[in-house]
Fold each of these.
Amino acid sequence: MGNLDVWGLHQWWETVKIRVQAIIFSFLFVFIASSSFSQPPGMGMRRWRGEGPCWKASELNLSQEQRKNLDLIQEAYFREAQLLRLQLFTKRLELRELLTNPTLRAETIRGKNLEIIELQSKQEERAIDYLIRVRNLLTPEQLKDWCPEQEFPHFRQMMYGTGPRGSTPP
């Protein structure tokens, strides 16, 4: 019986060692991968054609008039975007309720999903309208240093798609 306990302890210890090694390996992998994609703060995103850094519109050397107009454009956009996000949130909650209801037909669920898709499309349309307004505000020199994809955290996903169904950003 004593040998059985020692053998069980030995197996337990080997399992713990393997798990610790896996955790250390995972941590190192994430650390190395994340540091290889980082860039120094304040450098801005590299342009598509390998030119110098580029910036958000608010980080450019704007005149007082441009800054005032940019503030107005941003206020109007963010107010409307907030409303759309709230509507999307509500529709997603409704979809969740429909999906967990065993008595509903699939057509009802698909209809709710179409409502969500329409709202998402409207949200993307508003984002493009915002970027066009910002673009019209900037001078040709400022446009050379502007990165539209930095205006929104998810703009790159919207432009290029991500995940299994879309391509990854360049």
Amino acid sequence: MNTTTADAATSTFSMPENVGLTAPPPLEGAALNPVPGWMEVLREQFASVGLALRREGIVVGSCALLFTAFIAWVQVRYGAADVPLSPGEGIAAAMMALLIPMAVWKGEDPARRGYHHAMPVGHGEHAVARGAAGLAWTLAAVAAFFGWMGLLSGITGGGVEPVEAWQWVAPFAGATVLYLLGSALTLATSRPWRWLGGAAVGYLFLGAFRAVDAASALTDAVDAVVSGRYGITTVITGLIRHTEYMGHPMLADAGTWLTATFLWLAAALSLFFWAAYRQPEQ
């Protein structure tokens, strides 16, 4: 009788239809769900943030259109309206940058960001990418603001204020700093508007105690942060107050502006990255 012996090297599943089941060959080539690159993530976030800001953009655009119509009516009825164009006009746009993060992250307070853990990138990287996309839209809005102001100035004959070229960069630097600070606040708390409102009320309330000697240290510290030599006002305008001149005029100072911008930008970036990489509340 012939006896058939099993070959030890032969797989148990040696049937033709089962070949390869015990040791499937390794997958080669691209994975089924590759991790997206940074540029791809930024493009997606840029488009997503643009959609999130669409309603606010329509509201701001409508207000600008109404104001343009009003200026045109004044120009026709009373003569030249003389709308000026200067870097100082960017203060309003820079202050608006503080509020834009609330629109970028609307509906996504810390308690609702658990889905970040299911994203193909880390939750910190996702927050940074979305914040960067919002900053791009913010700077584009500041540029559009100056374009609109330039149009009004040209129509009304207001003219352009003769300033140093670097002063036109100051409003963009101020908008960047304030946007990053607003983003850090929005990422860290679910009620950023309460903190901003409380800060504004506190600042106005503090003004009532400027004549009180006991509160002078506090008021001086707040004034230094807001309008001091290296305060946020210097970052936005590039202007500092020179006390040696009669009347305390505001004069441009490139060196002081660069120092103030570096200090504020470093602080704002630190707070933003800290808030972005915090674990979201569950």
